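User: Could you check the structure of this?
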Amino acid sequence: MHLPQEIVDLVVANLALDESATNADLARAALISRAWRIPSQRCLHRSQLFSPPHKRLLARLAWFQEADGQRVAHHVKEVQFWRLDGDIRQFCSYWKSVLGSFPCVQDVGIQFHDAALQGPLGPSNGPPLPTFPSVTTLRLSNVAFATCHNLLVLISTLPNVTSLYMDRENWACGDLLEEELLQEGSAGANHPKGPMCNGASCPLLPLQNIVIDCTGGLDLLECAVRHTDLSKLVSLDVALPADPRSSGAGMAPFLMGVPTSPKPDFPAQETQIQSLLCGMDALERMVFRVPSEVVCNPIIPRATPSLRHFALHYLRLDCFVPSDARPTLSCISDALAALVSPCLETVNITFSLSDTAQLDCVPWADIDRILSDPDAFPILRECAFNVVYLVRRGAHAEAGPEGKSPKIAAIAAIAAAVPERLPILSTGGVVSVHEAEDFDV
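Assistant: Sure, the predicted structure tokens are below.
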């Protein structure tokens, strides 16, 4: 029986998404007929992972450089480098040979094994790296760059990259620089040794999407902001640090070769970053992931005229301890009040709690007042609250009303309570409450 090609493509795509399926299943599907071969090979070879040891990596690459491998190389869209070490020459060799073998690769990921690239990327460590125009997304995980110079050189080989994901990065020399400066104790301006870059003189990156994990400090965000053409940025997703002073925080100016005082000015860094977040006229989506103990509030740009979606995720109401100085999680209302976004359509807030009484920690009245302002947010259509209810360990699991489990009963009670606490927004029909998937708590 001859099936339409659209049906075959759909069957193969669902097979590839099936967690119980294996590559062997896709390989067998490719043998059914010519109509099944192309979509099966497309899914089978879409993502490729290269990792040490050196001989295994080269052997895997060699197959794609032979005749059989070359016939499917154009199906490879994602390449991951996994658990690399800090040998700069070896990294450059991998980078050139692997990416050069896949002319249609779009998504590249790099994960280092707790090591910084030893030395600068560039002419001093071999010929210039070639460019790979097909790549549009770069994902970095656990990459310890000695300075942002290496990051910029790496991205310069991807002229069409528009999306940058940075997870658990750090500037390896940050702690060393701070230690050296504190030992010197000089009062004059300081420049760190080695290949640095200055955000003012470097060409700006035309990124459209940035997802960045700043749980180790705000320096990564400051460096990214200084080197990005913010007028083209469409989406910004930031995981905030629990302690802005952590991981050599305040070292960004040193890492970029900017003259500054010998000791970092920690309190001024948030203000400095906010002053840099200007001209974001194309930004449509802004997401902040908040640590359990909120110390660093979301850094809201001065104006975001095109912003349509704003989100605050992972607020821990179950960990918040009210005080006279801070009776509620004011970071929520402070962030919303700072928004200058006439195009805002949706607000999304995710929080966890272990008792419905913890809802009192949210500044509901302020949220209701701020978001219901028709002049500030004339087209707001949804304010969604995603709730994770944590059942306490050792709690007696008594059935709730109508025989419901305690968790289901609590979610239902929260879904009923939230609209009551937002009377103006609820009247407009924009409030919704959903049960969220558990996040790492």
